[in-house]
Design a protein that fits this description.
Largest sheet: none
Number of strands: 0
Radius of gyration: 41 Å
Helix content: over 70%
Structural class: mainly alpha
C-alpha cells in the first residue's frame, strides 16, 4: 500500500507541475495578446513617437531663436532708417535752396 500511495502522490505532483506549466504558458499568451492589442490601439490613435516629438521640439526652438534674431535685426534696421531719412531730407533741402 505504501507503494500505491507513493505513485499516487507522484502522479499528483506531476499533474500539479504540468498545470503550473500550462498556467505559465497561458499567462505569457495572455500578456502577448494584451500587448499586441494595446500596440494596435495606440497605432490607431496616430500618436507621435518620443524621438519625433523631441526632434520637432528642437526645430521649433531653433526657429524661435532665428525669429528673435531676425526681429532684432529688423528693429535695428528700422532704428537706423529714420537717420537716413533725416540726412536725405537735409541734403534735398540743401539742394533746393542753392539755385
Amino acid at each position: 500500500m505504501t507503494q500505491t500511495s507513493g505513485r499516487f502522490f507522484d502522479e499528483i505532483a506531476r499533474l500539479m507541475n504540468d498545470a503550473a506549466g500550462v498556467a505559465h504558458g497561458v499567462r505569457r499568451e495572455a500578456e502577448t495578446v494584451f500587448r499586441t492589442q494595446i500596440e494596435r490601439m495606440l497605432g490607431d490613435l496616430d500618436l507621435v513617437k518620443r524621438e519625433e516629438f523631441e526632434a520637432v521640439k528642437e526645430m521649433a526652438r531653433l526657429a524661435r531663436e532665428e525669429n528673435e534674431a531676425l526681429k532684432a535685426r529688423i528693429e535695428a534696421l528700422e532704428a537706423a532708417k529714420p537717420a537716413k531719412k533725416g540726412s536725405a531730407a537735409s541734403s534735398k533741402a540743401a539742394d533746393t535752396s542753392e539755385p
